[in-house]
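Forwarding the complex inputs:
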Amino acid sequence: MKQLEDYAPFIYTCIHCKFCQDTWTDEPEKGFPEGCPAGKKFEWEAFYGSGRLQIAKAYLDGKLELDEDVADILYKCSCCGNCKVQCENKIPTVDIYEAMRAKLVEAGLGSLPAHKPLVTSIKSYDNPWQQPRSGRARWVRKLDIKVPDIRKGGNVLYYVGCTAAYDPNMKHLAMNTAQILDKAGINYGILGKKEKCCCSTLLRMGEREVAMELVHDNIETFNELGVDTIITSCAGCFKTISQDYPQIDDIEPEILHTVQYLDRLIQEGDLEFNKEVNMTVTYHDPCHLAKHNDVVEAPRNVLKAIPGVELVEMKRHGVDSWCCGAGGGVRTAFLDWATEAAAERVKEAESTGVNTLVSACPFCYQNIDTAIKSIESNVKMVDIVEIVEKAL
Amino acid sequence: MIDQKHVDHLKTIVGEEYITTSKPIRISYLAESIMDLDSEIADVIIRPQTVEEIQKILIYANEHKIPVTPQSKGLSGGTATPTLEGGILLDLSRMNKIIEVDTDSRYMVVEPGVTNGQAWGYFIENYPDWVPPIPDGAPAQSSIMGNTLDRGFSVVTSKYGPQADLALGLEVVLPTGEIIKTGSWALPGAKPFYRWGIGPDMTGLFLGAQGTMGVVTKLATQIVPHMPYTDIELLGFETPEELQDVCLDILKQEVGVMVQGGPWWLVPGVRQKEELEKQGLLDIDAWREKKYYVPNYMMNFEIWAKTEEELKGQKQTIKEIVEKWKEKGAKAEILPIHPKAKATRLKKPNKIAIPYASYERTKEHGGGFLFITWYLPWKDTAEFCHICEEQMPKFGFDPIYWVASIKNGRDCIGMPIVCYNSQDPESVKTVNAFDRATSKIFLDHGWLNYRPRKFVHAPMMYERAPEYYNMLVRFKKLLDPNGIMHPGSLNLNVLEG
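Prediction (whole assembly, two chains):
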């Protein structure tokens, strides 16, 4: 993977203009709301992309040594990518932060103590939730359909991801996805107990060495399966497998997030809705879909295709969405702040007058749901596959 | 480095949460681009929220002769308040209230941390018929205050003048702890409706002072009508003289709120040179062969009107003047403008100035740019263009520069956009050498640098105006007896010895 030094041309191109601090929409009437959860929370310049790049530059210039202060700043970032999206000089900010985090790990200053159980869990159990490997496919038992093992054949691997597989509150997401694929007659399968963490969290935290073994295992598995397509429920898995893995080794199958795959099925007439679902919803764009992969239209196409669903946009949407605050190891290390960031999103959803907040990532779901409870909001959190499944 | 005892005392003023000596945080405030290249790390950053806190900080700093550099939130060019002598950097971003908007007297009162984006959004939501004077092409996070104090460019400068011309009054905390108000504000109970106040006016002492005289804590500035009908007319010319003379005729008719342009080099300038070279697009004819119509020189007239008829009338005025010049043999024309380009230009604030940083970026090294801005009479615009085109290549820079009208073409703001390799100290030295060489030429022409750099423009300019400089130093001594305010900036560091 690229080292911090590889990004030097970009780091030195930062002119400290601060455009990265806002969301910058193509609709001026929206005004210019804040876009950086870390900057908004901690306020010092260092917590914005513009400040972080000055720190990276000083490090490369030999004017700054890594220490606990640097680690504190660099780990207080959800790696949402608002700064990357807003930068007119196309500086890959998040890649730079992650490369700096890798330096911190090498120096023994990262990841943070709060991250260690997660790192150990992935090392020991191939998942971050300290759950046994054997539990990864338990969600299948609750279904009255058979979920195929991909190793016995199939064109599409449904890579469930650790959160949807293990979190009791998230398993319905995996179940709904399997039901949709089944109803659509897709020749798919899962890896079951053999599925391993994609290592998104490890890579985001700079724990590259720990991640490498699993990443290589996964790439080898994916390539050996001979499938055409891999679909993921989790936006983080999707970002990691589609963007990080190819930096490490070639990966043969096409990688899609579920919403992209569903959008394709709908466009090609392979998924038809039979029931009307009368819902007015607003959609939260997961950062790993919208900001990191520009997947903005696909989920909206899916929602708009469902009979009876009306979509009302929040002020900040698409690549200009406000991050839920969970990513980059923030929810693990700074739960209160992650919840606070998500609460801002819930309030923004409330301001639309809609009480159903839809997303397409179990990690966003988990964090936003925590915030809904913490502020006792009437908003209901829903994953997009729940609505799709209802309409079939 | 400031002693810990000072830091401990300052904590008692603002609270521990709002002061830091953390090295990475201090580094994050460095400002080594866009408007200047010289910046040092402050010893301590403080984020006060009230005038009283600032007063106490300044009294203490003055007593202990600790340098203080105020930073509103960033200037028109982003974080453009370089700290030159360590000491305290006052980050005023917590003072971010729009205190008052008066649509009858047509002003607003803002604190230093009020940003362009914040003000623009606030007006869209609350006062859609009015426009706050925000800088054009500057970040949403730069401040109204910073751009005003710097006498910067605003979205309506071609009509109303530099942003400082819109200032109606200031509230300033002096290093002695005294608080003064200027303009009509100086009279207790008076609104800030009249810049010249109870006179003689002291506002000007703080405009262009780069924080060397005191900390400005409130600004009253004019707001202007937000016209519902807007458009852009793009004019092309063969020579700088045509650009200068045709535009002046139009500007004399008071058409255009924002009138700006320059040579065709502005087109490739916002792209990456390395890529353009590969595509053979560093040549104007190559652009033209690709069916892009690129004139040698261009000017965008942004026009605002109350009615569609009025908008048409302004366009007709432009058309008639261009036709008149064409009849006289000038190669001037009104060009089609791509809808996307038009939308980008009309959007406020916009990002149009930022991509110049990528021009010199390659796979091996970084980019960057320095805006070196000069004010000159409009009738010198063509001469300015010729000098830029002669001098920039001499130093290895492509002749990317920009010109714009001030107050209906009374003056011109001219700006070499020096794109360089910020990763290479030799490239930085070359930028400085270019700046010195052109400063001599520009000063010989009687033109003024609008934001003098400490090591270049300030000494070169003031040595030509010793009487003015000496008087300025006397004012400085009066307001800042221990010379703590942004020492060295404007080369006003004579107090040290």
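The CA atoms of residues 397 and 418 of chain B lie 7 Å apart.
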